[in-house]
Amino acid sequence: MARTAGSHSQTTGPRVHDAALKLFARHGFAAVSMRQIAAEVGVQAGALYNYTPDKQTLLLDLMRGHMDALLAERAQRGKHGGPLERLEEFTRFHIRFHLERPDAVFVSYMELRNLSPENFETIEALRRRYEDELEGILRDGVAAGLFAVADSKIATLAVIAMLTGVTTWYRPAGRLSVNEVETIYWDMVRKAVAA
Amino acid sequence: MARTAGSHSQTTGPRVHDAALKLFARHGFAAVSMRQIAAEVGVQAGALYNYTPDKQTLLLDLMRGHMDALLAERAQRGKHGGPLERLEEFTRFHIRFHLERPDAVFVSYMELRNLSPENFETIEALRRRYEDELEGILRDGVAAGLFAVADSKIATLAVIAMLTGVTTWYRPAGRLSVNEVETIYWDMVRKAVAA
DNA sequence: CTTTTATCTGAACAGGTGTTCAGTTAACCT
DNA sequence: AGGTTAACTGAACACCTGTTCAGATAAAAG
Question: What superkingdom does the record give (chains A, B) (predicted)?
Fold first, then answer.
């Protein structure tokens, strides 16, 4: 056998990414073999190398895709309004965005150590750009006398850690809607940085 | 060759745990081989099986050791005082304890998925006991009219996520002492749950 | 309908995996 | 000093690892 019926790069490519994301999130990058990914796609292991030069790059592509999507969606929002409005917008956006892609979040936060130093820097730079957006909001709020934080960088990291934490416990079938979760967290964020 | 000069169970046992903890934290459970652990200890792979029945149990023991230490140290503290004092005590304890053992924290939070379902339940039960301590404090504070949180369980998870986040950025050689970090976070926690 | 091209198979490569165990040696006990 | 035991080696087991590639086949192009 060789080329299979209905095979097509435009469908197999995304399927490889989807399968890898799902399996990396469940079992971890190192614990997943190329043969497992291939089986999930319904293909032999060798075929994967039409879509990625190696396993490392597959991981990098998944992470970069996640960070690019994060920054792209963020760029279309929350540019107007005062610090308080922008902080609420950031809070709700962060929660919603992360709850919509739990697998990508899991992989992006857990598999950083499996990136080569060079690839790690690439991803870290994107993450810093995102953090800088929140820090800018906090700084503006402090300057306007609305917020009081001892250290804007630490406050940024603290808020992001708190918000990202929702992904560890939230289940769609649970008792709270995403909107309710957003509201509860926004209440805590607002108070935590309030003057 | 066989038994090596100076070999002793009481020294090798802890060394196996230390080496495994260090390597699991750096590279991840699945990415570390028994031979790498053995090499770190200065021993052949087979010798490790005098100290653990298998790799899985080695991971479980590391995690359980971490959680036991957490609960044991916690049990000797913060039983007296009002909700505000107990919350401050919890906040400072959590940060200090976690910053003192970054490897154990890393492993305990990242490798949960590598535990068998049964072992996972064991660790989760210990984690819930710890979370319940914080939730108790928050509930007491709400009852006393000192705190205002929409949902005590979510507030608990949010606070713990925020506090544990310090381990991702704190470096001993950095510009802040542990005590300064504690104070900055305590300020945010206090305000976040304040009435 | 024929030719070209994209896609995938199946086997192979060199090396690594967790785990077991007979045999060897150092440390301890009397 | 001699016997016993705890600690470790080194080899072996069956199997899995990422990656490569010649060959086969379906889809696309002419």
Answer: Bacteria
B25 contacts B108 by C-beta, under 8 angstroms: no
Gap between the Cα atoms of B96 and B91, Å rounded: 9
Confidence (pLDDT) at A77: 87
B158, A162: Cβ pair inside 8 Å? yes
Nearest nucleotide to B34 (CA to C1') is C18
Do A131 and A159 meet the contact criterion of CB atoms below 8 Å apart? no
Query: Is B191 close to A189, i.e. CB distance below 8 A?
Result: no
Identify the burial level of B107 via C-beta atoms within 10 angstroms of its C-beta, where 0-12 means exposed, 13-18 middle and 19 or more buried: buried
Q: Give the pLDDT score at B115.
A: 92
What's phi and psi for B84, nearest 5 deg? -65, -45
Phi, psi of A178 (to 5 degrees): -60, -40
Contact in structure between A27 and A103 (CB atoms under 8 Å)? no
pLDDT tens digits for B82-129? 999 999 999 999 999 999 999 999 999 999 999 999 999 999 999 999
A159/B184 Cβ within 8 A: no
- CB of A45 within 8 Å of a chain B CB? The answer is no
Question: Is the Cβ–Cβ distance between B70 and B129 less than 8 Å?
Answer: no
Domains with residue ranges and CATH for chain B? 1-52 (1.10.10.60), 54-193 (1.10.357.10)
Contact B34, B51 (CB under 8 A): no
Cβ contact A159:A192 at 8 Å = yes
Amino acid at B194: A
Give contacts of A 82-121 with B, CB under 8 A.
Answer: 110, 113-114
Q: Taken in order A143, A146, A148, A153, is the CA torsion positive or negative? A: negative
The ipTM estimated for the assembled molecules is 0.92
pLDDT digit string (tens) for A18-49? 999 999 999 999 999 999 999 999 999 999 99
Q: What angle do CA B72, A164, B133 make, to 5 degrees?
A: 25
Asked if residue B2 keeps its beta carbon closer than 7 A to nucleic acid strand D, the reply is: yes
